[in-house]
Structure formats: C-alpha cells, structure tokens
Design a protein that fits this description.
The chain has seven helices and five strands. Strand 4, helix 6 and strand 5 form a beta-alpha-beta unit. The termini are far apart. It is globular and about 45 Å long. It is an alpha/beta fold.
C-alpha cells in the first residue's frame, strides 16, 4: 500500500517538479496546462476530479473512505507522467493538498500513510494560488463561502511541513508570469 504513495525517484532523477496548490477554483488546472504547453512537457492531472465525476454519475459523493484511493490514484498519475516529462514536471495538486482537503471535510481525519507521504514526497516549488479569482460552480466544487479559511489551511500546511512555496495571485497573465519567472530560476539554478 505505502509503495503506491511513494514518488518514483530513479526515473528522470534530475527532473524539476512543481505543484499548483491551493483551494478550488483558483486556476490551478488552467495554469498547469498552460505551463506544460509553454515548457513542452507534460502535466499531472488532478485525479480527484475524475474520481469525483465518476462517483457523481452514480449519484454518489466522496467520503473519507475515498481519501486513500484518491491519494493512490494521484501518485500513480504523477509517477506515470514522470516517464514522459522532459526536465520539468507540472503537478496539478499533490498529497499535501489531498491531506488538507481530507482534514477540512472530515473533521481533521486523514489516513496516516497519506500524511506520511505528503511530508516525504518532495517538490522543488509549490505555487500557492490565492483566492482573488471568481469562484465557478462546476458540479464538483462546493466551497464558495469558505475560500479564505481553506486558503489559510493550505498555507499553514506548507509552513508546517517546511515546503518551498511562492504565492500566486492576480489575473491569469500575472499568475502565469509569476510561475514562469520562478520556474526559470529553478531551471537556471539546476543547469
């Protein structure tokens, strides 16, 4: 079980990994796609979205029993996409985001193994997306009124786990430029 939550490190070992991270409806997926296109690489989709959509088709909601399968699915996608990345992998979420959501929705509950790998899996930089975007309903999103509380929990998790992060805010172009500037610094620093 735990092996399924662990990052592969022997494939593409010099690949820079960045995470789009933050509350729902803050532009993470759009940024991930745009950055992957710009850098001619791949991005890791948010597994929980397709998982939630599949459950919704059967009139089911996500419960705390789904947290571990979602985490395993996310890491499976990330480890698979690492094979196709060039020198940069863009992740549209990670296990720390899964942990924050789990604790938010389920009164502090998160499976221990998810918390363990949320801490142990490493990324070069997190892009923490601020809530200065319009919240858009899409049938899956459900937190239009708790955005600041959620944002604060996301930031607190980064601080508590000592993860490197940059705040991303403003319109889409500003967000994209912030991400590009910091990715360029990472690329120039590692090459």
């Amino acid at each position: 079980m735990e092996e399924k939550l662990k990052q592969i490190t022997d494939t593409n070992p010099n690949c820079i990994k960045v995470v789009l991270y933050g509350p729902e409806s803050t532009g993470k997926s759009t940024l991930a796609q745009e950055l992957a296109t710009y850098y001619n690489t791949v991005y890791v989709e948010e597994f929980s979205r397709s998982y939630a959509e599949a459950k919704a088709k059967n009139n089911l909601s996500i419960t705390k029993d789904d947290v571990l399968p979602i985490a395993i699915g996310q890491m499976h996608l990330e480890n698979k996409q690492l094979h196709f990345a060039n020198t940069l992998l863009i992740c549209d979420t990670d296990l720390l985001e899964t942990q924050v959501y789990s604790q938010f929705y389920y009164d502090g509950y998160c499976p221990q193994e998810v918390k363990k790998y949320a801490q142990e899996n490493t990324y070069d930089l997190y892009f923490l997306t601020y809530i200065d975007t319009v919240w858009e309903a899409d049938g899956i999103r459900d937190q239009p009124n708790n955005r600041l509380e959620l944002f604060n929990q996301f930031e607190q998790a980064l601080v508590a786990t000592k993860k490197p992060y940059v705040l991303v805010k403003g319109d889409f172009k500003e967000r994209l430029n912030t991400c590009k500037d910091h990715i360029e610094k990472l690329i120039n620093h590692t090459h």
